[in-house]
Every structure is written in structure tokens, then in C-alpha cells.
Amino acid sequence: MSKKIKLSEEELVLALRNREKIAIEALYDMYSASLYGVIVRIVIDEATSEDVLQETFVKIWHAFSSYSEEKGRLFTWMVNIARNLSIDKLRSKDFKNHSKNQELENNVTSIDEQRNTVYKPELMGIKELVQTLKPEQKSILDLVYFKGYTHVEAADELGIPLGTIKTRLRMAIIELRKYFN
Amino acid sequence: MEDVRTFIESGILELYILGDVSPAEKQQVEAMVQKHPAVKAELMEMEKALESYALANAVQPSANQRNKILNSLVTNLADDATFNKKDEASVVSLTEPVTNNFYKYAFAASITLLIGSLFALFNVYNKLQNTSQQLVAVTSQNQRISKTVNLMDQQLGVFRDTTYKILRLKGTSNLPSGGVMVAWSPAKKKVILDLKTLDMPVNDKTHQYQLWALVAGKPIDLGVFDKLPADTANMQEMKPVALAQAFAVTREPRGGSINPTMSEMMLIGKF
């Protein structure tokens, strides 16, 4: 694998704005794994997830002029693109038919693949993190952040009032801030 | 400050980061972020935390994806128009412009041809007009010439006709140098003056010359004539007379007299 490129967020934004080739490589090297982590948790199927990852980068590249630093960080903007494309893919008719077939024929392999992605070596540090978050905080955060649920959908799914959802989501993020920042 | 805290604690910033807000809420958050540095700082902290969480949960895509995805982006970078070109290529757009052009050129050619034809027609019409004018001119000239020829033929006939007697009148003491030729056919009773041979002064407006025939000593009026300044004079036929011993010319008041003014006798000739 070729050398990975890293830039500061400011440098990267500037390079993307100037349509420099190096920006594309830096973007991929810095964020592909984080974005793919969100995509593959929503889409599950690996080949489809890889398609969505490509669509995500194409959209980031083409729609970059609509990004503004004033409104938030680059990653926040990108992860929302990745999440929306993943949900679109999940809801598309083609994919629904495709995943039905998958369920019948490749049930076991599909689950293996899923387990495989979750327990990849680079994710080992997550154990500690999991202990930081209370289970009810983590389940809501993952549902919204990694499964693409709206907070209203999450409230329905878990049978919990909207206000509680919002509070737990906020608490979860406060815990993350303590842990990371 | 209280407002800012309430805003932060409402949980809307979290939903904003997750893209789970209505357009109105999105605008509200963006306005607050711009207005209050505290809100912006809070947002940034949350974003960083979630970004770290995503990184902690990152899944490395398979190695072959890197080149595949980078190539697709570089292709876009190198030539954004590539896809557009493909789209255009699939559109069958060749025949239409050709047809359009054909009608355009055909129309232009028709107009040109029409203008050319009108111009040519106009030219031909002008020429025809000229030609018919010339024809009229030539015809009238021809008529004039044939008249002249006719007249000359008549006049020449006088000399061919053997019944004519030619007599030269000579000047009297009033006009010693005068003279004129008279042709007279007693059989046809015709008297003709050859004005070309008339040697007389030009008569004024109040006078004319009058020709007389002397028959048995009596003068008979044969008509008046003029001596014109320009040399257009020709033969002039006078009044008829069957018998005459002599001819004479007198100067009379315009229109002539019943009896000749003997004192004004200019020419005389006897057979």
C-alpha cells in the first residue's frame, strides 16, 4: 500500500477547494475508514458498502462547494453524506430484493462478514470505550449515529419518550467528550 | 447567557450534528453558532468527540478500494466533461442540424435566386422598353424618309413628265437679279414653283409674293408664296391654270390681292 497522506483539516479544506489532486488522496487516507465504519454498519453487505463508500467520495468531491467551515467540522458534513447515501441505498428497491436473496442463501456468511468487520484488530481499543458509556446511552447513540435512525424513529424503536432519547443522546456525547477530548 | 445555556442543554446541537433537524431548526442553530462563540465552542467539542467515536469504530475498507475510488475521482478531476461527452454521444443529434441547415441553405438559395430573377427580369424589361422606343423612333424616321422619298419622287416626276414646260421668270427693274423656275403642264393644268431656284429677298411679315398667270392680257391669281430665310424650300404646287401666255410675280400684302399691284412686279417670264 502506498504511503498515507495526512494534512490538517484547514489544509485539506483549502486543497479540496482548490481541486488539488493531493486533496483526494489525503481525504481518502484520513477519513475512508471512519466513513466506511458508518456505512458498513447501516448497509451490512460489504460489496454494497464499498459502492456506497465510492458514491460518498464522489459526492463529497462534487458537492464540496456547499461545505462551509462556519457551520461545522468537515467530518460532520462528510459523515452525514455517508449516512444519507447508506440509508438511501438501504431503502432502494434493488437493494431490498438483493438483501432478501442474501438472507436465504448466504445467511451464515453474511453474519460472519459482519462479525469480521466488528472485530477487526484496529478496533480493539473500543472495549475500554464501551465501558465508559452506559448501555442505554450506547444503544441510542449507535442507533442514531451508526444505523441512521432519526431520534423520533429511535424513540419508536426503543419505546422511550422523545425527551429521554434527547437527554441520553446528550449524556452519551458528554461521556465521549470526557473520554476523547 | 441563560439563553445560551438553555439552547445548549436543549439537545438540539446533538441533533444538528447528526443531521436530524428540520430546515428551520438548522437555520436557528447556524444563527446561534455565528452569534455566540460559546455555542460554537460547544458544537466543536461535540463534533470532535463524535469524530473520535467514529474513528474508534472505523472499519478499514479492503485495500483495492483505495485505487478504485481515487481513480474514479481523479478521472472526474482530469475531465469532468467525460461523462457529459458520453451522454452527448448517445443522443442522436446529427440528423437534426443537417436537416435544419438544408432548409436554411435552401431558403437562402431560393431568396438569392428570386432576387437574381427579379433583377434579370427588370433588366430584360428595360431593354425591351428601350428596344420598342427605338423601334418607334426608327418607324417614324422610316415614315418620314418614305414621305420625303415619295415627295421627291413626285417632284422628280415633274421633270420626267413631258407635258410640263419649264419657264424661268426673270427679274424686272424692281429686282434685276431675281428669278425662279416655274413648271406648267397645260394638259394637267398644274403649276409648280421650284422654290429652290427662287432668287428673291426674304419677304417681311406684312407681305407675300403672289404668282399670276396672264391669260389673254388678264392677270389670274395662282396663289401666294413666301421666301423663307432657311433653305428648306421645296417645290410648291400653285393654283391650276390651263392657258397662259406669261407668268409674273408681284409683292402684295399678306394673303394676296385680287388684282396685281403692277408697281410691285418683281419677276416675269413669257412663253
Provide a descriptive summary of the structure in words.
The complex is a heterodimer of chains A (181) and B (271). Chain A has 181 residues and is an all-alpha fold. Chain A has two domains: 1-120, RNA polymerase sigma factor, region 2, helix turn helix motif (Rna Polymerase Sigma Factor, Chain: A, Orthogonal Bundle); 125-181, Arc Repressor Mutant, subunit A. Chain A has ten helices and no strands. In chain A, helix 2 crosses helix 3 (46-62). The longest helix of chain A has 23 residues, at 21-43. Chain A is globular. The two termini of chain A are 31 Å apart. With 271 residues, chain B is of the alpha+beta class. Chain B folds into three domains: 2-58, no CATH class; 106-160; 165-270, Immunoglobulin-like. Chain B contains seven helices and eight strands, in the order αααααααββββββββ. An eight-stranded antiparallel β-sheet of chain B has the order 5-4-7-8-1-2-3-6, with helices on one face. In chain B, helix 3 crosses helix 4. Chain B is rod-shaped, with a radius of gyration of 63 Å. The termini of chain B are far apart. Chains A and B meet through helix 2, helix 3, helix 4, helix 8 and helix 10 of A and helix 2, helix 3, helix 4 and helix 5 of B.
Short description:
The complex is a heterodimer of chains A (181) and B (271). With 181 residues, chain A is an all-alpha fold. Helices cover 76% and strands 0% of the residues of chain A.
CATH class identity of the largest domain in chain B:
Mainly Beta
How much helix, percentage-wise, in residues of chain A? over 70%
CATH architecture of the largest domain in chain B: Sandwich
The CATH superfamily of the largest domain in chain A appears as RNA polymerase sigma factor, region 2, helix turn helix motif
The coarse silhouette of chain B is: rod-shaped
Largest two-chain interface: A-B, 58 and 44 residues
Count of β-strands of chain B: 8
- Rg over C-alpha atoms of chain A, rounded to the nearest angstrom: 18 Å
Net shape of chain A: globular
User: What letter string, H or E per element, gives the SSE order of chain B?
Assistant: HHHHHHHEEEEEEEE
